[in-house]
Design a protein that fits this description.
The protein is of the alpha/beta class and 108 residues long. Helices cover 47% and strands 17% of the residues. It contains four helices and four strands, in the order E-H-E-H-H-E-E-H. The chain has a four-stranded parallel sheet with strand order 3-2-1-4, with helices on both faces. Helix 1 packs across helix 2.
Length: 108
C-alpha cells in the first residue's frame, strides 16, 4: 500500500525542527511546525524566513517562490493539531518525559 504525504508535522521549532521543516517545505510538502510556546514557534519560523532570504540574495530562490513556499507553513502550540498530518517527525528537546507525553497525544 502506498501512502501519499501532503502534510508533514514537525514537533519542535528549534534549530533541528526548523531545519527539517525547511527541507520539507522546499521539497514541496505542507508543514505544521509545533513548539511549546508561541515565541519558540515564531523564532523557528523566523529562522526559515532568514534562510530563504539568504537563498534569494544568492540567486538560489525567487521572491515569488519564497512566498509560495511560506504559504505551506503552518505553526501551532497544540499537539492536537497533528491529527491532520500524514507524517510526524519528532525533533523536540531531549526531555524524555516530554517526548513520551507528546507522542501519546498524536498517536491516539
Amino acid at each position: 500500500m502506498r501512502m501519499e504525504l501532503k502534510m508533514i508535522g514537525v514537533v519542535g521549532a528549534g534549530q533541528m525542527g526548523s531545519g527539517i521543516a525547511e527541507v520539507a517545505l522546499t521539497s514541496g510538502f505542507s508543514v505544521l511546525m509545533r513548539d511549546v510556546t508561541v515565541e519558540a514557534v515564531q523564532k523557528g519560523k523566523s529562522r526559515i524566513v532568514k534562510d530563504f532570504e539568504r537563498r534569494i540574495q544568492k540567486g538560489k530562490m525567487r521572491e515569488a517562490e519564497r512566498e509560495a513556499t511560506l504559504q505551506r507553513l503552518a505553526t501551532t502550540i497544540k499537539l492536537e493539531d497533528f491529527g491532520k498530518c500524514d507524517f510526524v517527525i519528532e525533533a523536540a528537546v531531549e526531555n524524555i518525559p516530554l517526548k513520551w507525553r507528546s507522542s501519546g497525544s498524536w498517536t491516539r
